[in-house]
Specification:
By secondary structure, the chain is an alpha+beta fold. It has a single domain, classed as 3-Layer(aba) Sandwich (Aminopeptidase). It contains four helices and eight strands, in the order E-E-H-H-E-E-E-H-E-H-E-E. Strands 1-2-3-4-5-6-8-7 form an eight-stranded mixed β-sheet, with helices on both faces. Strand 7 and strand 8 form a beta hairpin. It is globular, with a radius of gyration of 16 Å.
């Protein structure tokens, strides 16, 4: 699946949203490591990453070639500002209509509209791929993200009070959300 769009950020700068490509592997991995150090709201810690640059490049290549999954990278001034993607829950008949959504934006780019643009891009791609439900989990304390998801139409479908165990704060409650895409 391909995606390519230029947007103007709240600070007036241009941002390119496009598929991650194999040649983005090193920069994408560096961004992953940085974003996973900047917030305690993401699934893993920086030191838990086991991907090499080659594996990240292959991952991006596979996403580029996929008809039902995608990894979108936001570039500002040639630098990766954030990433987001959709992943199929599986090919079994009972779940093939569902996809998961994940997003990470570098702290220096928070508040500029990149997260919103990446989310909207993933929603568009999920619809194009034929999914009828897009799902995510978000730490309950992450009120800004929850507000953005609610504004896009995501609804809460459940909570897991001990969904994450943070090295910093102990248990973190996860809010599970879903967006109905039609059909």
């Amino acid at each position: 699946m391909e995606y390519n769009k230029h947007i103007i950020l709240k600070n007036g700068k241009e941002c390119l949203l496009r598929n991650g490509r194999a040649e983005d592997g090193k920069a994408a991995l560096d961004n992953f490591l940085a974003t996973h150090e900047e917030t305690d709201y993401l699934l893993t810690y920086r030191d838990e990453n086991r991907f090499t640059v080659e594996q990240e490049s292959e991952y991006l290549k596979q996403k580029m070639e996929s008809e039902r999954e995608i990894e979108i990278i936001a570039f500002v001034d040639g630098k990766i500002a954030g990433t987001a993607g959709i992943d199929s829950l599986g090919t079994a008949y009972k779940i093939k209509h569902r996809a998961e959504f994940g997003i990470a934006v570098s702290k220096e780019f928070w508040g500029l509209g990149i997260g919103l643009a990446l989310m909207e891009a993933c929603i568009e791609c999920a619809k194009r791929a034929g999914y009828t439900q897009l799902e995510l989990s978000v730490v309950a304390e992450n009120e800004r993200a929850i507000g953005m998801y609610h504004n896009a139409g995501f609804v809460e479908i459940g909570r897991n009070p001990k969904g994450f165990y943070s090295r910093i704060s102990g248990y973190q409650e996860l809010v599970m959300m879903a967006l109905e895409l039609g059909k």
